[in-house]
């Protein structure tokens, strides 16, 4: 059993401000976004309904009753948004493909207008010196696929491989970096067991079957992407949390280990050839997924990098009445963001070091990291998001520590370029470096964006 330090609380002395030069000349500096959260244009150019449109239309599911149908109207305003990315000094940009723009469920042929949009977007990135990082699935499954069983159905694996094939054939001459899935945990567990994300189901067996099919679809898509894109760099992005036991008591430490089995090893072990963790399989019992011969070999396909999305550590307590594993995440203490998430920069260096040590996955990229605050536009039009600027600075200091410790982390994508549709929180939660006024669609650089720009200019 691994031993863990109890979370030491606040992060100690203010770090020395990081400098871009600390990371070397080849480090990638980006922002991350996702299709449903920013594109809008929900019914334009042949886009069909996604599970998030359906979920958002269900009363009570989204806190402000909103949806992504208009979002940031990035579908039309992308040139301005990419200009902002260029002007910040980014050299990479992470975006995702909206599957409902590509396949409508009626025709086997892809929707030309949907593909044309991403074609323009990618050209726009290249013209601005932004290396495109495309995510194939960031949660906006077409509703027609959900109607046929969604990710719980093995057919969705084949449908995803078709999507990967079509998209990489079209964009692969210009896009070299591909992320198959964003955060399979959220797709599977939040969407199908906890139920507060689309499609809103609450069954553990379904959730674990979904997780298996998501991982299988990753494994099956990777060789297709490689065949279409010579020299492609392909990986997957996982949402991971460093864990701390609520106390040093053996039952809390054991609860943390059980939680870790599902939260961390359930995804990483099969991706790196170890199959599903035995202890967790026993704990989930009849909810374990159906795994066919060959699946685990497919999932363990070699990849070129691992994407790590880091937001906060979790503190886990023994609670026999809570969840399938008798483990409960305690509410955060100390400094928190407007999401109630703890601010713990050192968790980033700790997490990267752990993943590297446990699996040796090769190059690591922080494919998301960011913070939510209740930003206000002041009379002079500025957004003084001091807390976000500090969050960013301290997390980059932690990243510098990881680099200095020899962890092979090669890039950082801030979540997010723009304020956007924050899933079940609707537009109530702002994560952007750039403020969006949803009534006018005006964009304004927050102070955090200006800090990032200064950092990227080497100032
Ligand atoms: C991540 C999601 C991303 C965004 C951030 C705040 O889990 O990948 O879309 O919602 O959280």
UniProtKB/TrEMBL annotation:
SUPFAM superfamilies given for it? (Trans)glycosidases (SSF51445)
What top-tier enzyme class does this entry carry?
hydrolase
**Mind listing the GO molecular function terms for this protein?**
beta-glucosidase activity
Q: Which domain of life is it from?
A: Bacteria
Q: Which reaction does it catalyse?
A: Hydrolysis of terminal, non-reducing beta-D-glucosyl residues with release of beta-D-glucose
User: What's its EC?
Assistant: 3.2.1.21
By what name is this protein known? Beta-glucosidase
Taxonomic source organism: Telluria mixta
